[in-house]
């Protein structure tokens, strides 16, 4: 069995990770570290786990664990690893932004659809951001084919869980309910990793990715639309995307109209391509907590330990 530990166990992504790993056939959840909840039952915080586990949060770590997931706030993963040393055989999967840029400290960017072979050999994974995952899966096939001709225009909406568990004026129910707003227009932090991936796949790419993120009045999921100039036909575009995802475990093309309930509570990404005049439009939907975070992290674990990507991730959509 793979002995796994979680650092920062009280947040949304940790809760999803615990839920998956408890039922993963090849993993034993060895410890769940939390400085805010030590000694408390995990099911007292993640209440969907009542009856599933008697594990308690701890303020001790097992430095010999086979794999450790860092579910810490941005900036805290770097600090934690500087203060805590694991064995040379321990693999690290970080869910923060700390190591996503330029492979710092041998961290591999953990987007399986484009980095699968590197992930298989990696000891350190920087799990992509949620918006970055939805948008990258929408636009990177065109860059891989060297077919990006101009600027990208992206509009995406995320659920309230994308903001984490810490309260702020825009996460209170009275503000979020029956409301909609844009934030961090043209300067969201995930633009950096999206741009990095684009430039690696299409060298010389120097166009702008114009991104407007939005807050939706729902709990989880991301719905993204991205369009750019494309001189080819819709059939050519579909062939490019079909080739890019022919071996993808969780990313699928569809001809049908899409909605979030198709992917919420799953590790799937669904994509739809349409051509309007000179513009190619790609619609992308994911669950921000799963394919955008914890599900993708377990997908990376599976690759790192030589397992089928789908192991432990046979999750069903919350359709009704």
Automatic annotation (TrEMBL):
Q: Which GO terms describe its molecular function?
A: N-acetyl-gamma-glutamyl-phosphate reductase activity
Keyword Oxidoreductase annotated: yes
InterPro entries in UniProt: AGPR (IPR050085), AGPR_AS (IPR023013), AGPR_dimerisation_dom (IPR058924), AGPR_type-1 (IPR000706), NAD(P)-bd_dom_sf (IPR036291), Semialdehyde_DH_NAD-bd (IPR000534)
Please list the reactions this protein catalyses.
N-acetyl-L-glutamate 5-semialdehyde + phosphate + NADP(+) = N-acetyl-L-glutamyl 5-phosphate + NADPH + H(+)
Pathway(s) served: Amino-acid biosynthesis; L-arginine biosynthesis; N(2)-acetyl-L-ornithine from L-glutamate: step 3/4
Q: Which residues form the active site?
A: 130
List locations, semicolon-separated: Cytoplasm
State the family named in the UniProt similarity comment for this chain.
Answer: Belongs to the NAGSA dehydrogenase family. Type 1 subfamily.
Task performed by this protein: Catalyzes the NADPH-dependent reduction of N-acetyl-5-glutamyl phosphate to yield N-acetyl-L-glutamate 5-semialdehyde.
Q: Which PANTHER family match?
A: N-ACETYL-GAMMA-GLUTAMYL-PHOSPHATE REDUCTASE, CHLOROPLASTIC-RELATED (PTHR32338:SF10), N-ACETYL-GAMMA-GLUTAMYL-PHOSPHATE REDUCTASE, CHLOROPLASTIC-RELATED-RELATED (PTHR32338)
Name of protein: N-acetyl-gamma-glutamyl-phosphate reductase
């Amino acid at each position: 069995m793979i002995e796994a530990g979680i650092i920062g166990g009280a947040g949304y992504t940790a809760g999803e990770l615990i839920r998956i790993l408890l039922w993963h056939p090849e993993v034993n959840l060895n410890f769940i570290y939390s400085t805010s909840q030590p000694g408390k039952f995990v099911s007292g915080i993640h209440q969907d786990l009542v009856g599933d586990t008697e594990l308690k949060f701890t303020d001790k770590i097992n430095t010999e664990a086979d794999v450790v997931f860092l579910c810490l706030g941005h900036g805290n993963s770097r600090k934690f690893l500087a203060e805590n040393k694991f064995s040379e055989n321990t693999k690290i999967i970080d869910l923060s932004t700390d190591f996503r840029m330029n492979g710092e400290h041998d961290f591999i960017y953990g987007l399986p659809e484009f980095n699968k072979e590197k992930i298989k050999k990696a000891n350190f994974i920087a799990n992509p951001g949620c918006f970055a995952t939805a948008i990258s899966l929408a636009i990177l096939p065109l860059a891989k084919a060297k077919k990006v001709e101009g600027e990208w225009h992206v509009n995406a909406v995320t659920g309230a869980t994308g903001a984490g568990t810490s309260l702020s004026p825009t996460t209170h129910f009275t503000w979020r309910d029956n409301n909609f707003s844009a934030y961090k227009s043209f300067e969201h932090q995930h633009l950096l990793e999206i741009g990095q991936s684009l430039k690696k796949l299409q060298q010389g790419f120097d166009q702008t990715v114009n991104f407007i993120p939005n807050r939706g009045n729902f709990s989880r999921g991301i719905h993204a639309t991205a369009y750019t100039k494309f001189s080819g036909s819709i059939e050519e575009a579909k062939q490019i995307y079909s080739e890019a995802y022919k071996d993808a475990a969780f990313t699928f093309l569809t001809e049908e109209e899409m909605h979030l309930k198709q992917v919420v509570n799953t590790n799937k990404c669904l994509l739809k391509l349409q051509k309007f005049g000179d513009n190619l439009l790609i619609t992308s939907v994911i669950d921000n907590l799963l394919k955008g975070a914890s599900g993708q992290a377990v997908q990376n674990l599976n690759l790192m330990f030589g397992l089928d990507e789908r192991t432990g991730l046979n999750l069903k959509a919350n359709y009704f």
